[in-house]
C-alpha cells in the first residue's frame, strides 16, 4: 500500500482530491436542500396542524354556542330542492331531525297546520327569487309528547346565477319559547292594567253615585222632616234617613277595611268559639231585614258542634257580607247559614234562593275589586273583595257555586284547628 502511494505523484493526488470534491459537493448540496425542504415542510405542517386544531376548537365552540342558543343553521340547494342542516339544536331535544339533503318540504313537517301553509309559501317565494329574505314565527310539535314549541326562521338568498336566479339559500331556525312566554306575560300584564284602569273608572263612577245618593236622601228627608207635623210621616222619614245613613256607613267601612287589609293585614286575634253561636248572632242582626222582605233566615242543622280556632270578628264580617248580599238578591224563599268540616278545613257557607249567577261568572274574578255582575244594582263591588282579603288573612279562601235562576251558595274555607 505504501509502495502504491509512493508511486503516485503529488499532482496526481491533487487531481484526485479535486475529483473527490467535484463528485461529493453536489451530493452535499442536494442533501442540504433536502434537509432544508423537510424542515420547511415540517414548519408548514406544524402551522397547518395548529390552524386545524384551532379551527376544530372554534368549530366545537361554535357548535356549543349554537346549541346553547337553541339555534340551527341550514342551507338549501335550490336546483336540487334539498335542505341540509349544518348544525341542529333539535338533536338534543324530543324533536325529529332532518337528514342531510332531504326534501325542502320536510322543513314544515312538524309545524301546526295554521302555520305550515304560511311558512311553506315564504320559503317558496324565497327559492323562486320573488323575495330576498324571509322571517317567520311558527309553532311546532314534539315527536313523543304533546308539548308545543315556538320557533323563528330567518333565511336569505346566498348565491345567484348570472341571470339572478337563486342557486342556494342559507337560514337559521331558533327556539323562542322563552321569548313567547315573556310576550304572553306582557300581554296579560297589559290586559290586567287595562282592566284595572277600567274597573277603577267604573269604581269612581259607582262610588260617586253610592255616596251622592244616600247623602241626597239624608239632606232631602232631613229638610222635609223639619217641616213635617204628622208623627207617622216623621217616623217614616226618620227610618229612611237611618237606612241611608247605614248604607253610607257600610260603604265607608268596606273601603276602610279593604285599605287596612291591603296595607298591613291588621292584627289576627284568634280564639276558640262555637260556630252555632256566631250563626245565631248573625240571625239576630239580620232577622228584621229578612222579615221585611218576607224571607226566611235559618241555620242548617248539622250533626256536630264545631268550634274553630280563628279570628271571630273577621269570620263574622265575611258571613255578614254573604248574608247581606243574599238578602239583597233574593226576592222570595230564604237564606240559610251552614258549615261542614272536610280534610282539615272548615267550610262556612251562606245559600239563598235568589236569582243566581251564570256559571261562567262564578270565577275568582267575581271576588276582585270593583267587579259587579249587574252594573245597575246598588253597590261598589267591594264587598266580595273584602271577603277574599279577610279569608286570605285567615289562611283560607272563598268561592261560589251558583245556577242562574236557582240561587247561590257563597263559602269561605279556613283551616280547622
Summarize it.
The protein has 417 residues and is of the alpha+beta class. The chain has eight helices and 13 strands. It has a six-stranded antiparallel beta sheet, sandwiched between helices. Strands 8-10-11-13-12 form a five-stranded mixed beta sheet.
Along the chain, the helix and strand elements come as: HHEEEHEEEHHEHEEHEEHEE
The name of the CATH superfamily of the domain at 267-415 reads Histidine kinase-like ATPase, C-terminal domain
Shape: elongated
Count of helical segments?
Answer: 8
Would you tell me the structural class of the helices and strands? alpha+beta
Number-wise, the strands total 13
Radius of gyration: 45 Å
Low-confidence stretches: none
Termini separation (Å)?
A: 127 Å
Architecture per CATH nomenclature, i.e. the level-2 architecture of the domain at 267-415: 2-Layer Sandwich
| CATH C-level label of the domain at 267-415 | Alpha Beta
The average pLDDT is 81
Give me the side-by-side strand order of the main sheet. Answer: 3-2-1-6-5-4
Describe this structure in words.
With 417 residues, this protein is an alpha+beta fold. Among the domains are: 66-180, Beta-Lactamase, CATH 3.30.450.20; 267-415, Heat Shock Protein 90 (2-Layer Sandwich). It contains eight helices and 13 strands. The chain has helices at residues 2-7, 10-68, 113-127, 177-227, 231-263, 275-292, 312-328, 383-393; strands at 71-77, 82-87, 102-103, 133-141, 148-160, 166-175, 270-272, 296-299, 309-311, 334-342, 345-352, 397-403, 407-415. The strands form three sheets. Strands 3-2-1-6-5-4 form a six-stranded antiparallel beta sheet, sandwiched between helices. A hairpin with a 6-residue loop joins strand 4 (133-141) and strand 5 (148-160). The longest helix is centred in the first third of the chain and has 59 residues, at 10-68.
Amino acid at each position: 500500500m505504501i509502495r502504491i502511494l509512493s508511486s503516485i505523484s503529488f499532482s496526481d493526488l491533487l487531481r484526485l482530491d479535486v475529483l473527490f470534491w467535484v463528485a461529493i459537493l453536489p451530493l452535499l448540496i442536494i442533501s442540504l436542500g433536502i434537509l432544508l425542504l423537510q424542515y420547511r415542510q415540517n414548519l408548514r405542517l406544524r402551522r397547518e396542524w395548529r390552524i386545524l386544531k384551532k379551527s376544530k376548537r372554534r368549530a366545537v365552540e361554535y357548535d356549543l354556542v349554537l346549541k346553547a342558543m337553541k339555534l340551527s343553521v341550514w342551507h338549501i340547494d335550490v336546483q336540487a330542492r334539498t335542505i341540509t342542516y349544518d348544525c341542529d339544536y333539535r338533536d338534543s331535544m324530543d324533536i325529529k331531525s332532518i337528514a342531510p339533503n332531504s326534501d325542502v318540504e320536510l322543513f314544515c313537517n312538524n309545524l301546526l297546520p295554521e302555520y305550515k301553509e304560511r311558512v311553506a309559501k315564504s320559503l317558496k317565494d324565497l327559492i323562486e327569487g320573488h323575495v330576498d329574505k324571509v322571517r317567520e314565527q311558527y309553532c311546532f310539535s314534539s315527536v313523543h309528547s304533546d308539548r308545543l314549541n315556538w320557533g323563528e326562521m330567518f333565511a336569505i338568498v346566498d348565491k345567484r346565477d348570472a341571470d339572478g336566479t337563486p342557486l342556494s339559500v342559507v337560514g337559521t331556525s331558533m327556539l323562542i319559547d322563552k321569548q313567547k312566554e315573556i310576550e304572553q306575560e306582557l300581554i296579560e300584564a297589559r290586559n290586567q292594567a287595562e282592566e284595572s284602569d277600567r274597573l277603577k273608572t267604573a269604581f269612581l263612577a259607582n262610588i260617586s253615585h253610592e255616596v251622592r245618593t244616600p247623602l241626597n236622601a239624608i239632606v232631602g228627608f232631613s229638610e222635609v222632616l223639619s217641616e213635617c207635623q204628622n208623627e207617622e210621616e216623621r217616623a217614616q222619614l226618620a227610618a229612611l234617613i237611618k237606612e241611608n245613613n247605614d248604607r253610607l256607613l257600610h260603604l265607608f267601612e268596606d273601603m276602610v277595611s279593604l285599605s287596612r287589609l291591603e296595607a298591613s293585614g291588621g292584627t289576627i286575634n284568634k280564639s276558640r268559639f262555637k260556630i252555632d253561636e256566631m250563626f245565631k248572632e248573625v240571625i239576630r242582626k239580620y232577622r228584621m231585614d229578612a222579615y221585611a222582605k218576607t224571607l226566611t233566615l235559618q241555620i242548617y242543622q248539622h250533626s256536630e258542634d264545631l268550634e274553630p280556632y280563628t279570628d271571630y270578628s273577621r269570620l263574622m264580617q265575611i258571613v255578614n257580607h254573604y248574608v247581606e248580599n243574599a238578602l239583597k238578591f233574593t226576592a222570595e224563599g230564604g237564606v240559610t247559614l251552614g258549615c261542614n268540616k272536610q280534610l282539615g278545613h272548615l267550610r262556612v257557607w251562606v245559600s239563598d234562593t235568589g236569582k243566581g249567577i251564570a256559571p261562567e261568572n262564578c270565577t275568582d274574578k267575581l271576588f276582585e275589586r270593583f267587579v259587579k255582575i249587574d252594573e245597575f244594582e246598588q253597590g261598589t263591588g267591594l264587598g266580595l273583595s273584602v271577603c277574599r282579603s279577610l279569608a286570605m288573612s285567615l289562611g283560607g279562601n272563598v268561592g261560589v257555586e251558583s245556577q242562574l235562576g236557582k240561587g247561590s251558595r257563597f263559602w269561605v274555607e279556613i283551616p280547622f284547628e
